[in-house]
Amino acid sequence: MAKKRAKKQPPVRKFPRIPAETSVLLRKLGGPVKGSLSTTRVVGLGGCSFFHDAAEGVGSTLFLSILMGRDLAEAKARVVYENRIEEGKYEIGVEFLEIQAGDREKLEKLVGGTADPGGEGGP
Fold it and tell me: What is the pLDDT of residues 2-18, one digit of tens each?
């Protein structure tokens, strides 16, 4: 008797995420006091990914300021992956380690579809 193979289900994500191109200022904690501007690719409640012109190092801790319309959400994050896209261009994925309640609410609105990441925002 032949066994039926179960269809592989895509992994269930712990946090919802959406494609979102918005500005993000990042600063490596423990490094020089300088920031770099980048653009997010995906944003979720548990983290985000962005394109950057330099590797930051898997495991590095960053401080992020994510612009969402007129709102700004800030978070402490850890680099969980880096993919070199081409010479001098990386996709970096981070998980949020610390985020204040008010900033989390802003991200929840963005991910839930009630905020405009690149537009004028609300009143």
Answer: 556 656 655 555 666 66
pTM flag (> 0.85): no
How do residues 74-102 score in pLDDT, each as one tens digit?
Answer: 999 999 999 999 888 999 999 999 999 99
Tell me the CATH architecture of domain 17-111. Beta Barrel (2.40)
Task: Quote the CA–CA distance of 26 and 82 in Å, as a whole number.
Answer: 15
Distance CA 70, CA 54 (A): 27
- Cα three-residue angle 37-106-73, rounded to 5 degrees: 30
Largest CA distance in the chain: 66
- Give the up-direction half-sphere exposure of residue 55: CA atoms within 13 A in the CB hemisphere: 11
The tokens for 16 are 């919802």
Q: Reduced to 3 states, what is the DSSP secondary structure of residue 30? A: coil
For the chain, domain boundaries: 17-111
Q: How far apart are CA 112 and CA 101, in angstroms?
A: 16
Rounded distance, CA 33 to CA 39, Å? Answer: 20
